[in-house]
Design goal:
heterodimer; A: 556 residues; alpha/beta; 9-stranded mixed sheet; 8-stranded parallel sheet; 20 helices; 34% helix; B: 271 residues; mainly beta; Pectate Lyase C-like; 2 domains; 4-stranded mixed sheet; 17 strands
C-alpha cells in the first residue's frame, strides 16, 4: 500500500527542509522515496496549504510509575472533574493534571504527539511503570531510570570503586529496567534527606557516604558516555526551586567536565537572589552558559497558570514545599530504601509574585538560548503544567504580541523584574519543529523518529496553517502513526499501541555477584526479580515492539 | 407564568443523572430543546423526553413530578431559582449548589447537599447517608446554606461540614458531625454512635439526650447560652421543632470536643 501526502508545506529540520512544498510517500509504515511513474498510488491526501511535520516527541513527561499513581490516588477531584467519555473506539478515562493512561495516550495523539518519554523510573518501580506505559495507547514510549541516590552506587563510590564497576552497574540497571537513559535527581540528595540533611549543596558531603553531588554527576556522566548510551546524563540539579540556585546549576554544568549533560526543567533552576524579595530571574546567565557550552542541553519545564500536581523523586524539595500544597495534602515517602518521592498538588497563580516570575523565567530561557537543538519544549508534565497546555506554550513562543498581552496580566512586581517584554524573538515553525521533533529524536539517539527523510518511521502530523498557533497545534488535521491515520481533526480514529525504545549497552556480568549480595542483604526484592526480560516487556504493551537502539562506546 | 414541569413517565430501568438540567440556565430555551436534552441513563445516553413528559415554560422554576429514587443529581450546582420534587430524589441532591431552593416531598438518597455552598434544601421525608458531608477526596462537606430534613438522616450526616445549618427533625445515624470543621447541626431525635468523632469546631444541638458521646468529649456544665436565642430567631417559622424553639430560657448541657482534635467543637444537649 502506497500512500501519498501531496502538496503540504514540509518542515523537516533534520534535513534542513524549511517550509518547502513537497510530496511525501509512505509504504509499510515508513517514508519512502518518490516512486517511479509506473507505480500506483493507493491513497492520496491533498495537503495544499497545510503544515507537515514529523510526529512530535515529548522527551520529558511523567506519564507512568509509582509517583503518578500516588498523584492519581490523591486527587479524586482531578479525575471526577475531567471525565473523558468512552466512544465506540476509545475507552473512558479521566484526569486533568494526573490523567489515566488512556486519556494520556489519546490526548497526546490528538495534539500530534507520537512519542513520550517518562523521565523518572525507579529501578524497583520499573515493572509497574512499564505496565502503565504499556497501557498508554497511541504513542511510543521509553523511560529514563533513576540512579544517584541508591545505596549500591553510593557504597561503590564511598569505597573508591573504579569507574569500570560503576559503568557495569549503570549498564546492568539499563538492561534490568529496559530504559533508554539515566536520570539523576538531586544527586545524592534523596539519600541525604534520609540522613536528616535538608539542603544539599553541590560540594557538600553526604552525611553517611561522604560523597558529594559533584562526584555523583562526574561518575554518572562518565559512565553514560563510556557506555555509549546516546542520551546524555539527564540531570535534575540540586537545590530545585531555591532562590540563588542558578549558581548550583552553573556548577552542575561544570561537574560534567566537558561530557554531554542534559539539564532538565531548567526553569526551576534559574533563580537569582536580587530585588527586594530576594528572588529574581537568572535566565540570562543560565542561557549564556548553555549557549557557551556545546556539551550541555536543557528542557525548560515551563510553568503555566492553573491547577496541577507536582510529582517528583526529589523528596527533599517536596518536603520543603509541602506547606505550599493546594489543595492542602501531600505525600513524601521513601520507596523501598532505593530512593523517594514527593507528590503535592499545586496551583500556579498569575497574581502571585513567585509564580509569575517563574512563568517569565521559563519563557526567557526559551527565548535566550540561541540554539534550538539544545532547548526542548516541556512543562515537566505535570509539574509545571499538564501537557495539554503545549499549544498555548507554543503560541507564547511564536507570537510576541500575545506573549506581551499575557505578560501585562501577571503580577506587576514580577513583570517589573523580568526582561521578557524587551525580548523580540519569535519562534518560527521551523524552530518549533526542531524543539518538538528533530532535536528530541537526536538527543535520544533514535534515528528513525523526528524527521521525514527516506526510511523514517511514518509518524507524521499535519496542521492547518492558522494564525492562532494555539488553535493550530491543539487540533491537527491528520496524525499518522506508522503510516496509518490515527487522528483526524483532533479526534482519535484508530487506536494503536506504539512501541518501546530501549538501549542495551554491553557490560561485564561479574557485577551481578556483587548486586546479588547487596540485594539479598539490604533490598526488598532480589536482583534477579528486578530484571525485566524482553518477553515480559513485550507482554506489557499490547504486543508493542521493543526496539533497542545501538550504543557507541565512547573512549574510557 | 407556569413552571417547567417534567413528569416521569415510568420508573427508569437504571439510574439517571439529572445534572444537565442545572448545568446551564433553562430560561429562554424552547420546549423542543428541553425535550432533546441528552441525559445519561445507566451507561447510555437518552433524550429527556424518553423519560419525562414535558409541560410548562422553561424558567426559574422547575417541577419534577412522579419523581423516583433513581433520579440522581437533581439540582446539582444550582445557582438560583427553585426546584420542586414531587416524590423521592436519588443521590447527590443539590450537590455543590450555591443558591436557590430545592424541596422534596418524599425521601432523598445518599450524599444530598454534599459540598453545598448556599441556598436551601428541604426534604419532607428521610435523607440517606453522608447528608451535607464531603464526598471521598473532598476536603469539605457543606459550606453554606440551610438543609432541613423532616424525617431521619443516615450515617455521617455533616461529615467535614464547614459552614451553614443542617437541621434534622428526626434522628441521625452514626458518626453525625464527624470531622466537622465548623457550622451548625441540629438534631431533634436520637443520634447514633460516635457523634462528633474528630470534630474540630462547630456546634451540634441535640433536642433529645444522646445515649452517649465519645470519651474525648468533656462535660462543661449547664448554660443558658445567648447564642441559642439568636439561633431560635434565625430559624423561627421553619416547620418542625426548630422553628418553635423558645426565644429565651433555653438551657443546654455543653460538651466540648473532640479533644483528640483541638476540642473546640461543642455538643449542646437541651435540658
Amino acid at each position: 500500500m502506497l500512500l501519498r501526502l501531496a502538496g503540504g508545506r514540509v518542515y523537516d529540520p533534520a534535513h534542513g527542509v524549511n517550509g518547502e512544498i513537497r510530496d511525501l510517500y509512505v509504504r509499510d509504515g515508513r517514508i519512502v522515496a518518490a516512486p517511479g511513474p509506473d507505480e500506483r498510488v493507493d491513497q492520496s491526501y491533498d495537503l495544499t496549504g497545510r503544515v507537515v511535520m514529523a510526529g512530535a516527541i515529548d522527551m520529558h513527561t511523567h506519564i507512568g510509575g509509582g509517583k503518578l499513581n500516588i498523584a492519581r490516588a490523591m486527587l479524586p477531584e482531578d479525575h471526577r472533574s475531567d471525565p473523558r467519555a468512552r466512544s465506540p473506539l476509545t475507552r473512558g478515562s479521566c484526569g486533568h493534571a494526573a490523567p489515566g493512561t488512556f486519556a494520556t495516550g489519546y490526548r497526546y495523539a490528538e495534539m500530534g504527539y507520537t512519542a513520550c518519554f517518562e523521565p523518572a523510573i525507579l529501578p524497583v518501580n520499573a515493572r509497574q511503570a512499564h505496565l502503565e506505559m504499556g497501557d498508554t495507547p497511541m504513542v511510543d514510549k521509553g523511560g529514563y531510570v533513576m540512579l544517584g541516590s541508591d545505596d549500591f552506587l553510593l557504597r561503590l563510590m564511598a569505597s573508591g570503586a573504579e569507574q569500570r564497576l560503576i559503568n557495569d552497574y549503570v549498564a546492568w540497571t539499563l538492561h534490568a529496567t529496559r530504559c533508554i537513559g539515566i536520570k539523576v535527581v538531586n544527586p545524592g540528595g534523596i539519600s541525604a534527606f534520609k540522613f536528616n540533611q535538608r539542603r544539599f549543596e553541590l560540594d557538600e558531603k553526604h552525611g553517611f557516604y561522604g560523597v558529594t553531588p559533584r562526584d555523583i554527576l562526574r561518575v554518572l556522566s562518565r559512565a553514560v558516555h563510556e557506555l555509549g548510551v546516546p542520551h546524555p546524563l539527564h540531570v535534575h540539579s540540586s537545590n530545585l526551586g531555591l532562590p540563588g540556585n542558578a549558581d548550583t546549576t552553573l556548577g552542575t554544568i561544570q561537574a560534567a567536565e566537558g561530557l554531554p549533560i542534559h539539564l532538565t526543567h531548567i526553569q526551576f533552576h534559574s533563580y537569582g537572589t536580587e530585588g527586594a524579595r530576594k528572588f529574581s530571574s537568572a535566565a540570562a546567565r543560565i542561557a549564556e552558559a548553555i549557549n557557551a557550552t556545546p556539551n550541555a542541553s536543557c528542557d525548560v519545564g515551563q510553568i503555566l497558570f492553573g491547577q496541577t500536581v507536582t510529582a517528583s523523586g526529589d523528596s527533599m524539595t517536596q518536603h520543603r514545599n509541602s506547606g505550599l500544597a493546594s489543595p492542602k495534602k501531600f505525600v513524601v515517602m521513601d520507596i523501598e530504601c532505593d530512593a523517594g518521592c514527593g507528590v503535592l498538588p499545586f496551583k500556579y497563580r498569575d497574581t502571585n509574585f513567585v509564580n509569575a516570575l517563574q512563568w517569565a523565567i521559563g519563557l526567557e530561557v526559551f527565548l535566550l538560548v540561541t540554539d534550538p537543538w539544545r532547548v526542548f519544549l516541556t512543562t515537566d508534565h505535570p509539574n509545571g503544567a499538564p501537557f495539554t497546555t503545549y499549544p498555548h506554550l507554543i503560541r507564547l513562543l511564536m507570537d510576541r504580541t500575545f506573549r506581551n498581552e499575557r505578560l501585562g496580566l501577571v503580577n506587576a512586581d514580577a513583570r517589573a523584574l523580568s526582561t521578557l517584554a524587551s525580548i523580540d524573538r519569535e519562534y518560527s515553525l521551523y524552530e518549533i519543529a526542531i524543539l518538538t521533533r528533530a532535536a528530541p529524536a537526536r538527543i535520544l539517539g533514535i534515528t528513525d523518529l523526528g524527521h521525514l527523510g527516506t526510511g523514517a518511521t511514518a509518524d507524521i502530523t499535519v496542521y492547518r496553517d492558522e494564525p492562532d498557533r494555539e488553535r493550530m497545534f491543539s487540533t491537527p488535521e491528520y496524525v499518522f502513526k506508522d503510516g496509518e491515520l490515527i487522528v483526524r481533526n483532533g479526534a482519535v480514529v484508530k487506536v494503536t499501541w506504539g512501541r518501546y525504545h530501549t538501549v542495551e549497552p554491553a557490560y561485564d556480568r561479574g557485577i551481578e555477584r556483587r548486586l546479588k549480595e547487596h540485594f539479598d542483604r539490604y533490598q526488598t526484592i532480589r536482583a534477579a526479580s528486578l530484571q525485566i526480560s524482553r518477553d515480559e516487556m513485550a507482554a506489557f504493551g499490547h504486543g508493542a515492539e521493543v526496539r533497542t537502539h545501538p550504543c557507541r562506546r565512547g573512549t574510557p | 407564568m407556569s413552571a417547567l414541569r417534567l413528569t416521569l413517565i415510568s420508573r427508569p430501568p437504571a439510574r439517571v443523572d439529572l445534572s444537565p438540567l442545572t448545568a446551564q440556565p433553562l430560561a429562554g430555551r424552547s420546549a423542543a430543546e428541553i425535550a432533546a436534552l441528552p441525559l445519561v441513563l445507566g451507561n447510555r445516553r437518552v433524550r429527556l423526553d424518553e423519560l419525562f413528559r414535558v409541560t410548562g415554560t422553561p424558567g426559574e422554576a422547575l417541577e419534577i413530578a412522579g419523581s423516583d429514587d433513581r433520579l440522581d443529581r437533581i439540582g446539582a450546582g444550582l445557582a438560583g431559582g427553585s426546584i420542586v420534587v414531587e416524590g423521592d430524589a436519588g443521590a447527590y441532591l443539590g450537590q455543590r449548589m450555591t443558591g436557590g431552593s430545592i424541596t422534596v416531598s418524599g425521601h432523598a438518597g445518599a450524599f444530598a447537599a454534599t459540598g453545598m455552598k448556599g441556598g436551601e434544601i428541604r426534604v419532607a421525608g428521610n435523607a440517606g447517608d453522608f447528608l451535607a458531608a464531603a464526598i471521598p477526596g473532598d476536603h469539605q462537606g457543606m459550606q453554606g446554606g440551610l438543609v432541613l430534613v423532616g424525617g431521619n438522616a443516615g450515617d455521617r450526616a455533616g461529615d467535614r461540614m464547614r459552614r451553614g445549618a443542617l437541621l434534622v427533625t428526626g434522628s441521625a445515624g452514626d458518626y453525625c458531625a464527624s470531622r466537622m470543621v465548623a457550622g451548625t447541626i441540629a438534631v431533634g431525635g436520637r443520634v447514633g454512635r460516635s457523634t462528633g468523632m474528630a470534630m474540630r469546631r462547630g456546634t451540634v444541638l441535640l433536642l433529645t439526650p444522646p445515649a452517649g458521646l465519645p470519651p474525648t468529649f468533656n462535660a462543661c456544665g449547664r448554660f443558658p447560652l445567648t447564642m441559642l436565642a439568636l439561633l431560635a430567631r434565625a430559624w423561627r417559622g421553619l416547620p418542625g421543632p426548630f422553628g418553635a424553639l423558645p426565644a429565651a430560657g433555653l438551657t443546654v448541657r455543653r460538651f466540648m470536643g473532640d479533644l483528640a482534635n483541638d476540642g473546640k467543637g461543642e455538643v449542646l444537649v437541651r435540658e
